[in-house]
Amino acid sequence: MSKSDMGFEDIKSAAKQGDADAQYRLAMMYLNNEEVSDEDKKIVEAGTGVMPDYYWLTSTWFIKAAEQGHVEAQYMLGMMFYEGNRVGKDEEAAALQFRKAAERGHPGAIKMLKSLGVNYSAKTIEEEQAEELQRLQEAAQQGDAKSQYELAHLYARGKYGLVQDKNHAYVLFKKAADQGYEPAEKYAYDIGWAY
Length: 195
Hints:
Mean pLDDT: 82
Order of helices and strands: HHHHHHHHHHH
Shape: flat
Low-confidence stretches: none
Number of domains: 2
């Protein structure tokens, strides 16, 4: 089963097993009030001051994914701290998460750092990207499926200074998928289908 076909319980199970993508998806489901009981929704709408469990679960799952380096989770966690949404408003904690995401090239995080007045150099991002790209290329050449998957994303989007090359991205997604790396299966299929 590919991740795109996973239901709430499957995502929750994968998240509990430590899958960062599933942890992020589960947090987004809680953030968007998906798979939340009508009773919990009524509590929030009534404004009783008692927050249901899923409110706290949003930040819990974003934190777990962010700790594993999930860049979107880092950014979303930063936004939660910045806005005080389901967590206490904390601009210092927000800046920390934005910095982590910015170091991985997240444009929204870079923008938020600037809005917070944090001096952040784009050159540092380029240096980090060059190092990350080299690490991914070496690991991918050695057959590491996760690195092949991540490198495929960079080629597909033309990121980290790479020329966009969807053919090469497909080859890398396929290699990762052939090794059973589940997140790559959907992308290999989708890109392969387009050709």
